[in-house]
Amino acid sequence: MSLARTYAVALNGMKGDLVEVEADIAAGLPAFVLIGLPDMALGESRKRVSAAALNAGCPLTQRKLTINLSPAALRKQGSAFDLAIAIAALAAGGGLDAESAGRFVHLGELGLDGRLRPVPGILPSVMAARAAGFERVMVPHANADEARLVEGIEVTGVVSLRDAVIRHGGELTPDDTLQPVAAVPAASASAESAVQRDMADVVGNEEIVDALVVAAAGGHHLSMIGPPGAGKTMLAARLPTILPDLTDDEALEVTSIRSLIGTQIGHELIRRPPLEAPHHTASQVALVGGGSGRIVPGAIVRASHGVLLLDEAAEFPSSVLDALRQPLESGSITIHRAGGVATFPARFQLVLASNPCPCGRYGSADDECTCTPIARRRYLAKISGPLLDRVDIRLNVRRLGLAAMRGSESAGDLGSAAASSAALRQRVIAARAVASERMAGTAWTRNGDVPGTWLRTGPRRLPATVLGALDRALERGGITMRGYDRALRLAWTLADLDTCSAPTAQHIGAALYLRRGMNA
Description:
Layout: E1 2-12, E2 15-26, E3 31-35, H1 40-43, H2 45-55, E4 64-70, H3 82-92, H4 98-102, E5 105-106, E6 109-110, E7 116-117, H5 122-131, E8 136-140, H6 144-147, E9 154-158, H7 161-167, H8 206-218, E10 222-225, H9 232-237, H10 248-260, E11 275-276, H11 284-288, E12 289-290, E13 296-297, H12 299-302, E14 307-311, H13 318-322, H14 325-330, E15 332-337, E16 340-345, E17 349-354, H15 373-380, H16 385-388, E18 393-396, H17 402-413, H18 421-438, H19 452-456, H20 464-475, H21 481-497, H22 505-516
Parallel strand pairs: 3-4, 5-8, 8-9, 10-17, 10-18, 11-14, 14-17
Antiparallel strand pairs: 1-2, 2-4, 6-7, 12-13, 15-16
Helix pairs in contact: 2-3, 8-18, 8-21, 18-21, 20-21, 20-22, 21-22
């Protein structure tokens, strides 16, 4: 009887748990038993591993082989355990150095020909292995660049099971009957939009562009309501272009999320904020995440540290929109299912874009709305009050006329082009630097993340003469207490953009106007 072990990683959301893969060979009829709560895909690894080992020239034992995935009570999912199972089984049979196998974490799916295929979630898996104290990890060749993004751990990329056995000291004799295998190529990285978006493409709408700069500088949520053709989608899609590059921690988290959903990751971390724009027919699970088996992240998770654009927001079901309320406050989403619980990051900027009514012509100067008042109320009522109360900036976007377009053309002829995304991004970076300096020593870097109590107490508390308009709005019920804090955060962002040490009464008035269109 022989026993060997190696290690793999079981992912649950963004969290990885170390799994000990034990192989035991005992006397008895040939059998391959896999225990330890495997799912269906993992249960099928018995056939994949057996065929891969045979075709790689290192067949498994013809005695009774038992594979245990420990801890036994932890659910294991997916095919990334194939390599660890094969290595443990061969080590138990004496086909390779068992001590070497025990020093590695093995990740990868086996093909029937013995080649190793790339698997999703390599980046968070390697991070979990490093956190568990391991210094070496073996992954498919196609995942090697992604795994090397994690510092402090040695990464070995292998093409096939035979290659992995040789790396562990297995003495395999040349076999002319074996077909040479090539590395499984990495999947093509999903191409970002071929269109290069830039704020310089926007004609007119200077007030809306300024409001987008405020939203970007403070990390504020915003909504835009206006008729079709007013430019709501065009403006919202360009918000990520004026956001600063991601920090190292943010880039690692965003890249880990992309790895988890199976997006091919190259040799660099993702540095630009993502944009997610789900269709209005998306379900609640598609938006927040879930699934009956493996819990997968939704659009709000993929938009972490970026922008979630809900175009035609009033066409989304109310239940779908209201599912955003808790993540907007906490910056994370915890999904409970019968099979387990998974927590994902969900700190994003929400952008709602909607028509003012079903026909889209309400408020238009050159067209007549055919909707009844009750139809208009029902249409926008899908965006509930509690959700809208979490939106800092609310804009009404108007259609541009011929005069605005001709004015823009004339300005362009004179060399006075609209501000580019690069120029606006520098304003955002400068404002965030001021806020970051003020919040030094805290867990926050943006005004949009700061608790209201921190701004209303201590040295940040503003004098009553500055807060007069905000206090009156709260007193007469124009805003809620949450709205009071959000308007206060907005005022600080406006002050940072103006390089003021603290908001003035003018900044408070501007914040109220951006939030509710209320005059001071």
